[in-house]
Amino acid sequence: MSIENIQVPDLGDAGEVEVIELLVSVGQSVEENDSLLVLESDKAAMEIPAPVAGIVKSISVNLGDQVTSGSEILSLEVEASENSEKAPVVDKAEVDKAEVAKTEAEKPVAEKQEVEQQATESVSAETESKSNLIEVPDLGTDDEVEVIEIHVKAGDSVAADDSLITLESDKAAMDVPSPIAGVIESVSIAIGDKVKTGTPFAQILGQVAASPVALSPAPETKAAPTKEPVTAPAQQAASQPQAAAAPTTNSGKVYAGPAVRKLARELGVDLSLVPSSGAKSRILKEDIHAFVKSRINGGAVSGSAVSAIPDIDFSQFGEIEEVPRTKLHKLTAVNMHRNWSSVPHVAQFNEADVTDLEEFRAELKPAAERKGTKLTFMPFLLKACAKVLAELPQFNVSLHSSDEHLIQKKYIHIGIAVATEAGLVVPVIRDVDQKTIWQLAAEVIELSNKAKNRKLKPQDMQGACFSISSLGAIGGTGFIPIINAPEVAILGVGKTEIKPVYSDGAFVPRKMLPYTLSYDHRAVNGVDGGQFVTLLSKLLADVRHLAL
């Protein structure tokens, strides 16, 4: 047995960083790559793993300490064999005295031998199979997702791009392919586990890694920065104080990590009002979710006199059943409540005469069949809205959180609401203004099918400038859609009806499309809303204007 002093690895450009969580205690056994503690810089939080397996003999740091690269953090009692094989971080005081005493004449010879050895190892690494860790690729989000299927087991041979696991987020399911061909040596996750970008989940014996994001040498002894540390509940309870009893306005610095601040921005939460449950009053993601939940339930916040809606025992009135809400339903509720509460909505109602457009669409039906697609009304609506956004760029903006300026977008991406069994999703069609009606028709069908089969990826639902929610044939003369912030407008489309329209001294039957434009009155004025609906009706009444 020997004692190894574990040090903070190279932190790159970061200077001093703070110890925000201790994940082990004296006497605890740890395996190689088990997390020891969590550090936080101005930009990221990172977990420091154990370079070798052993027993924690002493801990040299406390919560709140500032450390730098090379700072000693703890000591491990390890087996002598592990010490020689794993080659962990070595105390500089134990460097071989014989190496220090090398003569100047011997150095060039030794350096030449070292260069030749490295070159030999490099060539060998390129030609031989080796063991690599497979990591979850970039998911386009910092949130954790659930493992719902595992397609391989230890001993299985896989080809490059074969599916290894299936992950499910709040809005979509996605397969994770193998980055290389090889043999699966081990799988370190189970169905139901939560993972995120960068989480290692399998080890594969194969050729040199094709992608540094999805594959890395196994095992690494250097910690990779993570967006937000994940700590077991028991560890959190041991190292964190009790949550504050009520929200208080923080006049000083808010203590929260980068991932927590990003989540707060996305949900429109003022961190100074959020009670903290982390060490040293650190705000966690769980605190943000609890705060938002209290607002949705009408809880008293920041001096508000509004109390939560009480739960009622409905079984006293008859038979009941408790039906759990899906993740998507709950997430949609949070977003819709936030948007309705924080955005001053104005609704502009109008109708468009789409008689000629519907006749034109019917004429194109044979051409659509030859192309193997279906030409719905949506591609024309997308094209018309893109034209209006180009003509009225004040609708293609987002408000900066400082309220000091607007973000003017030079691209036109439009989201379309799609109803699924799990809930409502809004896939985004990009560069609508640059695509033909046929291209838009094919993309609408493709994204709608992916949405209904829960195959949308996070990036498929990001970046919209404007949204369209169409009830289509469902019915209804109109509705007021809720703006999908940070967008500043959304179009709600009703069911087309035949109505008598007075024209040339007589009433004639025309197909009229009712729609509602909801817009954020902080960014868009009433006159802008009037111009939008007028131009949109003109374009839908005569599609020839779309070509101008």
Look at the structure and give the CATH class of the largest domain: Alpha Beta
Spans with pLDDT under 50 lasting ≥5 residues?
Answer: 82-110, 119-127, 209-213, 220-252, 299-306
- Net shape: elongated
User: Which percent range fits the helix content?
Assistant: 25-40%
What CATH calls the topology of the largest domain is: Chloramphenicol Acetyltransferase
Summarize the main sheet: 7 strands, mixed
Multimerization status: single chain
By DSSP (H or I, 4+ residues per run), the number of helices equals 12
Number of strands: 29
The CATH architecture of the largest domain can be named as 2-Layer Sandwich
Helix-strand category? alpha+beta
CATH superfamily of the largest domain: Chloramphenicol acetyltransferase-like domain
Can you walk through the features of this model?
There is one protein chain. The chain is an alpha+beta fold and 548 residues long. The protein has four domains: 125 residues, RNA polymerase II/Efflux pump adaptor protein, barrel-sandwich hybrid domain (OB fold (Dihydrolipoamide Acetyltransferase, E2P)), CATH 2.40.50.100; 92 residues, Beta Barrel (OB fold (Dihydrolipoamide Acetyltransferase, E2P)); 71 residues, Irregular (Dihydrolipoamide Transferase); 210 residues, Chloramphenicol acetyltransferase-like domain (Chloramphenicol Acetyltransferase). The protein contains twelve helices and 29 strands. Strands 19, 22, 25, 26, 27, 28 and 29 form a seven-stranded mixed β-sheet that branches. The protein has a five-stranded antiparallel β-sheet with strand order 7-2-4-5-18. α10 crosses α11 and α10 crosses α12. The radius of gyration is 30 Å and the shape is elongated.
